[in-house]
Amino acid sequence: MKQVVVIIACLLLAACGPGDPEAGKRVAEASALAAYPEVPKPGDVPALQAAGKPIFKAAGCETCHSSSHERNGLMGPPLGGVAEAVLAQHKGDPLEARRWMVKHIRDPQRFPGQHAGTDDYRGSAMPPNGMLKDADLRALVEFLWHLP
Q: What CATH number labels 2-145?
């Protein structure tokens, strides 16, 4: 299933060409579906979290974000308890909330977070991350999802 979604995303990009402003949005949406066809089973979560922590570091997330509730002088919003905030934005739907997190990480300008444009974060912008594989995004989101 994941491979089919990725193939479709690639075909959409090829068909749309570089001038299509919606191509990035479709790629992010396809990535979200590939990473999250369903909510992870509880038994799968510990391994995903363990895999996500080094991705958080390797992708440079900790350069701007703390994994606690405190900003700690960093440019981006703290990510402790992020699942609660994202769930609230998505009417308590854990699958849609996780998919939104994937889209936000892939293309934060098209899928802005609740802090985008606020006075506390004016002038900062999260860069898009197109380099992570969908499976890595799933692990990263599960790591973030379960931050206390």
A: 1.10.760
